[in-house]
């Protein structure tokens, strides 16, 4: 199925994708980055899934999906020749262990339904031992156990569990699947109906704190709920996406594991949360950030696990064919071992913002930041792998140098605005050196634009960040010409590519071909807004909103030729960008306006 036909449910510990055909095709539990027990998304039904759908439709007919307003409770409605029924899917956010609750509700007439449960631990590779006990149907393999409880009679068939049942108007039948450690007894039964009420109250109470009241409130709220759903509650870390290995090009090899927390998302995330009224989540994220980066600055990683884990070894899963035959399927991410200079700027920018927003920080935090800044001061002139985690040689990427400048700039501002101690004169000197070098070597006179790396003529959408972080004012002619050239050469059918993969084949070390990276198009909207092209900005934003799924979800990229979403899904960075851009276009106090005003007078 297309990504547009999947809904996301989660409990702020783990999450699942539910297809419009009534099948849960992806579930990693007990954490977002745990081994999947349903991996049909990257293979087939025998790699694990759980389907509840009308029997006469053979499970292939698609229902109509919708979220209950202001919740992460998903409803899939099926219409048949004899009646209609609804499957209500959710994950209670306050359970001790991880529960997936499915309630089948008869709407009118009668509907014959078929349930099929295929549990395969270890990303679809391990068939569990299944037994029936007084607690329910239990599937066990190694450290993992799943127990399914339902009043509907089930039977075993071909290494799966199936059931056929009829639902009439007004009837409700529930199924609860609970993960627990295999060495412990199953937890107490979950009352499905009571849990539904609690879950609905949880989400609606959370949404009630949303401070955004602008034109796009509905889609902003949906993006905020998605962001909350991707948060690992015990630590405050926010996962980049729910999935691994959904391709950036159908049939291609650009398939990466995004079930980790990227430092690069830090500042944008803080803006989206704080401006929306979620100070507790913003504080939890900033505290996660500080814990994750603590230690030797030279060992700073671009991403970490949900609890701050550093070892994210990349492995291939050859038993999975990949989404629409896009292989290889990867778990872990080798990019975690790369040197990417820009993340130092993101961390310093995030901590500067945290202080501005009065999130608690102490002397120990500042000592850590000073170590990071000193590392940047000594290493900013070294080549790196750049923002896009290239698998080619290191280069002097222009965006990386800009973000090194951000690190120095925010350190200077921390001293000047908050009275902190630091070698401000030296930091100012380094800041000016970086700025001079970027303007001298990152700007190509022939192209009249900032380019991907020093000496290159290729464009890069990351250069849209130049006005967005305050490196140069939006009115600067170099900014305007760069924005215009990116608009002219990197846009495909109204969406921005990260760079031209045909021109950059020797840069990223991968075969060419990928979709348009959605956050880049949001950045272009922000830049158009800053340079005064408000009508164009709003038109492009409306175009972006049209590629949201019917449920209001976004992936990482968009395939303009196929007219469909691709890449890992749902993607936190895409939703963060939507939230911030909506704020930028709603008034003149959004993140883009605030950061662009940080341009020093000497720039």
Secondary-structure map with pairings?
Layout (H helix, E strand, L loop, with lengths): L5 E5 L4 E5 L3 E6 L7 E3 L10 E6 L9 E4 L6 E6 L3 E8 L7 E21 L2 H4 L4 E5 L2 E6 L2 E7 L4 E3 L2 E9 L3 E10 L10 H16 L9 H13 L1 E2 L4 E2 L22 E2 L3 H9 L4 H15 L9 E2 L10 E2 L13 E2 L10 H15 L6 H17 L18 H21 L5 H19 E2 L4 E2 L14 H4 L8 H13 L1 E2 L2 E2 L8 H4 L7 E2 H13 L3 H12 L11 E3 L4 E3 L5 H15 L4 H6 L7
Antiparallel strand pairs: 1-2, 2-3, 3-4, 3-5, 5-9, 6-7, 7-8, 8-9, 9-14, 9-15, 10-11, 11-12, 12-15, 13-14, 16-17, 18-19, 20-21, 22-23, 24-25, 26-27, 27-28
List keywords for this structure.
Beta-galactosidase, Chain A, domain 5, 2 domains, 3-stranded antiparallel β-sheet, elongated, Glycosyltransferase, alpha+beta, 15-stranded antiparallel β-sheet
How would you briefly describe this protein structure?
This protein is an alpha+beta fold and 603 residues long.
Uncertain parts? none
CATH architecture of the largest domain: Alpha/alpha barrel
The domain tally reads 2
Q: Please report the distance between the alpha carbons of the first and last residues.
A: 50 Å
Count the DSSP helices. Answer: 16
Number of strand elements: 28
- How would you describe the shape? elongated
Query: What's the gyration radius in Å?
Result: 25 Å
> What percentage of residues falls in helices of 4 or more residues?
25-40%
Q: If you average the pLDDT, what whole number results? A: 94
The CATH topology of the largest domain turns out to be Glycosyltransferase
Give the oligomeric state of the chains in this entry, treating copies of one chain as homo and distinct chains as hetero. single chain
């Amino acid at each position: 199925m297309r990504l547009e036909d999947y809904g996301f449910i989660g409990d702020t510990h783990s999450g699942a994708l539910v297809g419009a055909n009534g099948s849960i095709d992806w579930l990693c539990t007990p954490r977002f980055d745990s081994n999947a027990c349903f991996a049909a998304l990257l293979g087939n039904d025998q790699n694990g899934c759980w389907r509840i759908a009308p029997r006469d439709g053979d499970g292939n007919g698609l229902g109509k999906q919708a979220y209950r307003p202001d919740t992460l409770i998903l409803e899939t409605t099926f219409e048949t020749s004899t009646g209609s029924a609804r499957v209500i899917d959710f994950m209670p956010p306050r359970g001790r262990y991880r529960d997936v609750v499915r309630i089948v509700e008869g709407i009118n007439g009668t509907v014959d339904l078929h349930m099929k449960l295929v549990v395969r631990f270890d990303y679809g590779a391990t068939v569990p031992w299944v037994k029936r006990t007084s607690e329910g149907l239990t599937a066990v393999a190694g450290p993992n156990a799943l127990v399914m409880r339902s009043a509907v009679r089930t039977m075993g068939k071909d290494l799966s569990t199936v059931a056929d049942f009829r639902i009439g108007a007004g009837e409700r039948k529930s199924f609860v699947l609970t993960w627990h450690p295999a060495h412990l007894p199953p937890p107490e039964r979950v009352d499905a109906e009571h849990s539904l009420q609690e879950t609905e109250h949880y989400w609606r109470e959370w949404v009630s704190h949303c401070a955004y009241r602008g034109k796009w409130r509905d889609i902003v709220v949906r993006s905020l709920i998605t962001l909350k759903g991707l948060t690992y509650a015990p630590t405050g870390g926010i996962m980049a996406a729910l999935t691994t290995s959904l391709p950036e090009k159908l049939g291609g090899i650009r398939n990466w594991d995004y079930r980790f927390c990227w430092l690069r998302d830090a500042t944008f995330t803080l803006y989206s949360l704080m401006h929306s009224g979620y100070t507790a989540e913003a504080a939890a994220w900033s505290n996660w950030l500080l814990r994750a980066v603590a230690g030797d600055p030279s060992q700073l990683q671009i991403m970490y696990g949900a609890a701050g884990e550093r070892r994210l070894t990349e492995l291939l899963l050859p038993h999975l064919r990949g989404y629409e035959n896009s292989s290889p399927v990867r778990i872990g991410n080798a990019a975690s071992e790369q040197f990417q200079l820009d993340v130092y700027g993101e961390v310093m920018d995030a901590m500067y913002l945290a202080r501005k927003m009065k999130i608690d920080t102490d002397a120990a935090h500042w000592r850590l930041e000073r170590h990071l800044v000193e590392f940047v001061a000594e290493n900013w002139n070294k080549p790196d792998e750049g923002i896009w985690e290239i698998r080619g040689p290191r280069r002097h990427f222009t965006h990386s140098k800009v973000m090194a400048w951000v690190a120095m700039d925010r350190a200077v501002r921390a001293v000047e605005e908050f009275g902190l101690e630091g070698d401000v004169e030296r930091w100012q000197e380094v800041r000016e050196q970086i700025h001079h070098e970027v303007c001298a070597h990152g700007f190509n006179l022939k192209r009249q634009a900032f380019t991907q790396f020093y000496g290159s003529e290729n464009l890069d959408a990351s250069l849209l960040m130049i006005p967005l972080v305050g490196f140069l004012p939006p009115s600067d002619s170099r900014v305007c010409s760069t924005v215009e050239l990116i608009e002219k050469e990197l846009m495909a059918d109204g969406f921005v590519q990260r760079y031209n993969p045909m021109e950059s084949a020797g840069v990223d070390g991968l075969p060419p071909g990928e979709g348009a990276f959605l956050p880049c198009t949001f950045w272009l909207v922000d830049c158009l807004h800053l340079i005064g092209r408000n009508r164009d900005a709003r038109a492009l934003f409306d175009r972006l909103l049209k590629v949201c799924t019917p449920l209001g979800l976004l992936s990482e990229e968009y395939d303009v030729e196929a007219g469909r979403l691709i890449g890992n899904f749902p993607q936190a960075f895409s939703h963060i960008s939507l939230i911030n851009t909506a704020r930028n276009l709603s008034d003149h106090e959004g993140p883009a306006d605030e950061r662009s005003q940080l341009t020093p007078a000497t720039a």
